[in-house]
């Protein structure tokens, strides 16, 4: 266990950290992460197709959140925040190209190792972690295993490298050779071999991120004619602003048949999620067979979402719409109280690290900005106002870059014209500037650095097409959200480095700000 320093009569003494949940031995910890999975394509939120039947059932037997949010809708910023508990403005990782700039004091892996955990990554990294940081490292990417050795690994990597962004026919890679299946094979082996000592395993699927490809039977399970009709289309882009319109132009330049292929791509995306769901079930069944389920905390979540056809777009890139920033989040296993309905709290990817600190009785390190969810997960009291809102960040700073004819998609590097769907949606246009979204109640406020505002009543307008910012009947809620956004911005000013002399840094044990 980590130790706390207490000041009594001006004398620093050591005290053993008391676990915040009664336990004999630290629980195992497993984070199961998908890449680019939006939250609402699941049965537990009313989606009419069996995309996530297993995780739906697991959620209702444990704890799940339908107000869970990423910190930024891009992989590296989100993943760096999960391991440090710090938002992108504090980690300095505001794009996928700044991982090496990450700034923090103590991260999740350090705390786990101090508490004698064995650690493993099986899957996609895209954070700042290195193979030397963990005890076991088996890395996969969107283009196959990082160092393919077996014939299957080489075959999969070769196919994914050619697929690039999409593959419209049934994938020639069978289900048992798809990456989610290979990753679970390795995870089962590793957990079985290391079950005698507390372990941490990051099972990180590169899917359902592009390339959108899936094999039978999943391909036919989500055929275009079976999919529910969408509520938005390209005609709505005029309401969404210039960044969305630039992204649409880029996608059309790279995917000339996108409008025709869109339903098939949506089906592939859902099929990839269903394959993952089946593999998660296989892994969880193994934990149960090994007698590990009650000894293990399992977190199932994603780093960010995907348009999946919303506004006629694919992937991610422009804006802070709900399809990109809201993520699935399920907690199961050791100490987790059953909640058959979703928790009302607004929670964040940055809350994972401090929650796991509480679960193993370790103090939350200084500089961590997320909050511990452990009291609410275990049925204990927690201040409701602490979780009545959440903020999401976007942008690498500077001025917004409009559609400038002097900078082409090719010059920027956002498109490879030799490949269908060879475009980079995270580019100079979509990621420029600075904006913030805050969620509270049924409302959402988005502000940029120019003072431009968007306000949506998500109960009446879930697809964010009717901007009511500045309208008289919404001024009261607009002011509430503006006040809360300012509060978050001040709260998330990085305290690191702490003063080197004299001052005492006050911190709630659960990192609450609005503690009762």
Characterise this structure.
This protein is an alpha/beta fold. The chain has a single domain (26-392), classed as Alkaline Phosphatase, subunit A (3-Layer(aba) Sandwich). It is 29% helix and 18% strand. It has helices at residues 53-60, 75-84, 88-91, 108-114, 151-163, 179-193, 218-221, 237-240, 242-254, 258-289, 322-325, 352-359, 374-377, 409-412, 428-431, 475-491; strands at 3-8, 11-16, 28-35, 63-65, 68-69, 118-123, 136-141, 144-145, 199-208, 296-302, 329-333, 347-348, 389-397, 433-440, 443-448, 453-457. The strands form four sheets. It has an eight-stranded mixed β-sheet, sandwiched between helices. A hairpin with a 2-residue loop joins strand 1 and strand 2. Helix 6 runs parallel beside helix 10. It starts with a strand and ends in a 25-residue tail after the last helix. 48% of the residues are buried.
Beta-strand residue fraction: 15-25%
Give the helix proportion (percent range).
25-40%
Count of individual helical segments: 16
Q: Which strand order spans the largest sheet, edge to edge or round the barrel?
A: 4-11-10-3-9-6-7-8
| CATH architecture heading | 3-Layer(aba) Sandwich
Q: Class in CATH?
A: Alpha Beta
- Structural class from helices and strands? alpha/beta
Summary of the model, kept short:
This protein has 516 residues and is of the alpha/beta class. It is built from 16 helices and 16 strands. 29% of the residues lie in helices and 18% in strands.
Task: Give the topology.
Layout: E1 3-8, E2 11-16, E3 28-35, H1 53-60, E4 63-65, E5 68-69, H2 75-84, H3 88-91, H4 108-114, E6 118-123, E7 136-141, E8 144-145, H5 151-163, H6 179-193, E9 199-208, H7 218-221, H8 237-240, H9 242-254, H10 258-289, E10 296-302, H11 322-325, E11 329-333, E12 347-348, H12 352-359, H13 374-377, E13 389-397, H14 409-412, H15 428-431, E14 433-440, E15 443-448, E16 453-457, H16 475-491
Parallel strand pairs: 3-9, 3-10, 5-12, 6-7, 6-9
Antiparallel strand pairs: 1-2, 4-11, 7-8, 10-11, 13-14, 14-15, 15-16
Helix pairs in contact: 6-10
């Amino acid at each position: 266990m980590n130790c706390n320093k207490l000041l009594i009569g001006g004398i620093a003494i050591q005290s053993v950290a008391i676990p915040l949940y009664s336990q004999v031995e630290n629980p195992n910890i497993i984070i199961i992460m998908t890449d680019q999975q939006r939250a609402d394509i699941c049965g537990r939120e009313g989606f009419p197709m069996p995309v996530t039947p297993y995780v739906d059932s697991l959620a209702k037997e444990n704890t799940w959140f339908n107000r869970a949010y990423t910190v930024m809708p891009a992989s590296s910023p989100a993943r760096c925040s999960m391991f440090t508990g710090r938002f992108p403005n504090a980690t300095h990782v505001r794009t996928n190209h700044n991982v090496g700039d990450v700034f923090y004091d103590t991260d999740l892996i350090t705390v786990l190792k101090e508490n004698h955990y064995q650690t493993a990554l099986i899957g996609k990294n895209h954070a700042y972690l290195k193979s030397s940081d963990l005890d076991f490292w088996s890395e996969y990417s969107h283009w196959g295993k990082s160092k393919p050795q077996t014939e299957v690994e080489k075959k999969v990597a070769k196919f994914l490298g050619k697929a690039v962004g999409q593959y419209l026919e049934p994938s020639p890679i069978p289900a048992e050779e798809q990456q989610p299946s290979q990753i679970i094979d390795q995870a089962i082996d590793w957990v079985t071999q290391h079950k005698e000592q507390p372990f941490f395993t990051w099972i990180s699927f590169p899917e359902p991120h592009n390339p959108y490809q899936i094999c039978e039977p999943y391909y036919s399970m989500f055929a275009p004619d079976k999919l529910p009709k969408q509520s938005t289309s390209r005609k709505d882009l005029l309401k969404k602003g210039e960044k969305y319109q630039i992204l649409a132009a880029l996608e059309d330049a790279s995917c000339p048949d996108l409008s025709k292929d869109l339903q098939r791509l949506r089906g592939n995306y859902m099929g990839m999620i269903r394959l993952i769901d089946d593999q998660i079930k296989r892994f969880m069944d193994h934990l149960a067979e090994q007698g590990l389920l009650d000894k293990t905390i399992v977190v199932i979540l994603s780093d960010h979402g995907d348009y999946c056809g919303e506004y006629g777009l694919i992937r991610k890139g422009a804006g802070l719409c709900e399809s990109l920033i809201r993520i699935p989040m399920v907690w199961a296993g050791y100490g987790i109280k059953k909640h058959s309905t979703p928790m009302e709290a607004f929670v964040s990817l940055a809350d994972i690290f401090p929650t796991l600190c509480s679960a193993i009785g370790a103090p939350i390190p200084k500089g961590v900005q997320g909050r511990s969810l452990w009291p609410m997960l275990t049925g204990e009291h927690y201040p409701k106002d602490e979780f009545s809102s959440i903020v999401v960040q976007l942008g690498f700073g500077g001025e917004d870059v409009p559609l400038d004819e002097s900078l082409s998609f090719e010059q920027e590097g956002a498109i490879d014209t030799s490949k269908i769907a060879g475009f980079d949606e995270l580019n100079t246009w979509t990621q420029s500037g600075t904006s913030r979204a805050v969620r509270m109640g049924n409302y959402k406020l988005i502000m940029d650095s120019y003072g431009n505002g968007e306000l949506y009543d998500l109960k009446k307008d879930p697809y964010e097409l009717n901007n009511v910012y500045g309208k008289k009947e919404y001024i009261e809620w607009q002011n509430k959200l503006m006040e809360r956004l300012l509060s978050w911005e001040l709260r998330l000013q990085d305290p690191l480095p702490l003063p080197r002399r004299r001052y005492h840094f006050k911190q709630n044990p659960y990192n609450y700000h609005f503690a009762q």
